[in-house]
TrEMBL record, chains A, B:
Entry's Gene Ontology molecular function annotations: DNA binding; DNA-binding transcription factor activity
Domain HTH lysR-type, first and last residues per copy: 5-61
Pfam families registered for this protein in UniProt: HTH_1, LysR_substrate
Gene3D superfamilies: 3.40.190.290, Winged helix-like DNA-binding domain superfamily/Winged helix DNA-binding domain
Record key words, sorted: Activator, DNA-binding, Repressor, Transcription, Transcription regulation
Protein name as catalogued: HTH-type transcriptional regulator LysG
Family statement: Belongs to the LysR transcriptional regulatory family.
PROSITE patterns to which the protein is assigned, alphabetical: HTH_LYSR
Length: 300, 300
């Protein structure tokens, strides 16, 4: 494989995909945009495939993603080897290694980032986090866009290992005034009618919860879309609708009286898993251990 | 125009774009997927253009976006007229009107949503918020994806009015330990070297700030990408890098001692504008007034 895919060409392709344009890749690689273009063409001739869409930003084609995935593994392994050999001459001259990880929005806004405080001491390892719905993070793993992912899928992507992190608990909450206005009779009566807040159109947490409660009916079509974790909690706190709020955020509102539990005793637990490529990488190992440890404290 | 673009066909196209698939649109419209498909084809025959890409989710083509924009204006005006005529027979039977608004992530996580608490009393108006970089929200306006936007651009999109909301103030902060380790000598010496946190690859706030300070040098290539407003503040608080944090969030950390100002006296003000389509819509007017009022309190 090495003869067919020279390292400088592969690394150039990766830079173009990561930076989004030929010009930006050229700046990072300290070469001219024309050299970048020639290297990508050379790689396409060698592989006999179109590897990039010439859009802004450029995107890897299906064939391109195979090469990108290979390039990321090479870069990861080289970064680890350089670190072990002490070749990174101090923080100022180290070439940073990026660890691309997909994380669901609620984890990214609550327990995930503080778990990585230990990386502050590591001058050659940098995070490249992608926010993605927990049911869709595995797509990014499969495409080789990320090395690891926090996902709701326990089924390992080909080439990946999987480990259970615990469950994120959500509480159905609303303002006391909202509860007084909408909650009357059994859940099957009011849950399909009461306005709610959803994160975005991919968010089916509330509908799944409603179906369980009502024997199959989804939540109301009267719904606000608020694609931000704090914005979501703020929308519920403002009385725009009910919603499933992560326990940590919900408890703040419950203690202050701004929120009320809509269905005492009912919660929704979303199991989360850590999937990562099978790579003998000390950096990835370090991050995975920190995440597992924090998940043990923060999740159920 | 009415004869050429029958309302039921236009509304069907809008439902397909909003819901993402023919099946989902069919469920919302209470017709069969086959009927949805036939209506879209009929509309394409009438206009002589392909209006949708048959992808999952489907997307409007350039021609499709023109029709979508027209459809949203019709829906908005119809919703307003129904409300004025008292035709919405109570919350349970009202057909909800969606107000699609693009908002930059930091606004969406701080002052924007609480400003809309008054909508909780309005049973026929629902928010469809889109999170987008403040420099790119105008694209969504131009494409007709949203009716209004919080944007950094004072130049009105064709057909839109623009109004200044105020400036969002950012403070350059880091942990005290980070400041002690990296900050030595003039900014031109250490700012281009110190690791930092960026929101994503579109976020050039830190680079623009660094260029101003150093006479042209961008911030360090040693950077973490954390695409979440709270995650961003958490990453800075964890010591992963310095970053420009919205004043409201930064002050919490400064008061507790978790954060320190990196360059006392230096701040970055990002002016924000409200752009909206020129529509005689009471609902849009109500929302715009609430946003302007909240911006007056929260922004500079």
């Amino acid at each position: 494989m090495k003869n067919e895919l020279p390292y400088d060409l592969v690394r150039t392709l990766l830079a173009v995909v990561d930076e989004g344009t030929f010009d930006a890749a050229a700046a990072v690689l300290h070469v001219t945009p024309s050299a970048v273009s020639q290297r990508v063409k050379a790689l396409e001739q060698r592989t006999g495939r179109v590897l990039l869409t010439r859009t802004r930003p450029v995107r890897a084609t299906d064939s391109g993603q195979v090469v990108v995935r290979y390039a990321r593994q090479l870069a990861r392994l080289e970064g680890d080897a350089r670190a072990e050999l002490g070749m990174d001459g101090g923080p100022a001259t180290a070439s940073p290694t990026r660890l691309a990880i997909a994380v669901n929005a609620d984890s990214l806004s609550t327990w995930f980032v503080p778990a990585l405080a230990s990386l502050a001491e590591d001058a050659h390892l940098y995070l490249d986090l992608r926010r993605e719905d927990e049911a869709h993070t595995t797509e990014l793993l499969r495409e080789g866009e990320v090395l690891a992912a926090v996902t709701s899928s326990p089924d390992p992507v080909a080439g990946c290992s999987v480990r259970r992190l615990g469950a994120m608990r959500y509480l159905p909450v609303a303002t006391p005034a909202f509860a007084a206005r909408w909650r009357s009779g059994p859940p099957a009566h009011w849950v399909p009618r009461a306005p709610l807040v959803c994160f975005d159109r991919r968010d089916d947490l509330q509908d799944a919860f409603a179906r369980d409660l009502t024997g199959g009916q989804p939540a109301s079509p009267l719904r606000h879309y608020v694609p931000s974790s704090e914005g979501f909690a703020q929308a519920v706190t403002a009385g725009l609708g009910w919603g499933l709020v992560p326990e940590e955020q919900a408890l703040l509102g419950l203690h202050s009286g701004a929120l009320a539990r809509l269905l005492p005793g009912h919660t929704l637990d979303v199991p989360l898993f850590w999937q990562q490529w099978r790579l003998d990488s000390p950096a990835l190992f370090t991050v995975a251990a920190a995440i597992a440890e924090a998940a043990g404290r923060s999740l159920r």
